[in-house]
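User: Hey, quick favor. My workstation is busy. Could you predict this chain's structure for me?
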Amino acid sequence: MNISNSKIILSPESLPVGYTHAAYPIPLRLDKNRLRIFFCSRNSKQIGRVFFCDVDSSEPSNILHIEKKPVMYEGVEGTFDEHGISLGNIFRFKSRLFVSYMGWSKSLSVSFKNSIGCAEIINDRKLKKLGNILSFNIYDKFTMSYPYIENLKGKLFMFYGSQRSEKFSPMKHELCLATSSDLFNWKTSNQILLKRRKKELGFARPWIFYIKKKKFMLVGSSEENRYKIILFEFFNSKWKRINNNVIKNLSNWDNLETEYPSHIKVNNKNYIFYNGNFHGKTGFGYCKVEE
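Assistant: No problem, here it is.
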């Protein structure tokens, strides 16, 4: 699997004054010529909101439109996402289109206690919140992160991060799995999917994709406060690490960090989208994958 040079798509300078990041990009195919990329940006209070831009599917660095007003806001005071939103993935279920996300909730004793939400995508642009679909339970006691929901023959599988140790600090997010048949009731377990290396603090924002009937997972990894994207392959019922640093041909916007990946295949082209340095403060971009 060969990866092309990276190209930037959008930086925060293209957004309204006061917004500081462009992160967590997730693509939606509108037609053979256009992709809609939903992403998050932070306002002056560092609260994440959702925007989108439309790009040329043959050359995603060619922006066709930028939606300058948020299409999804943080929740009201007291709700699970009152301090911001970070996007997970887009998926179909029972002929409807949804987006998963992580809701940010600050805490007094620890920095945050986050959990998982979902919204329905209406007419490819409006996001209608459905609420908190996975919250704290006997296995997920502290905080959860960045879901990826896969629909396999009507059964839903959620890959998500969770702080599974008995202490909040230091943060060591494990990649975990939950299942559901209706989107709102999830069965969790003590299973941990990926093995962390000694210096890895955790995994973030997994993304499942298929090439030539092989199943792969992109996932962000933090090691000594530096983020990179790792590639796993599902082989013999286990996830095997096959590339420890996927994006290598870097530019000045992603030379320090690559994180929060997503993938789409359109017009026989495989793209990986991700954000760059400082959690997307320099914006997000993409690279091509040669099969």
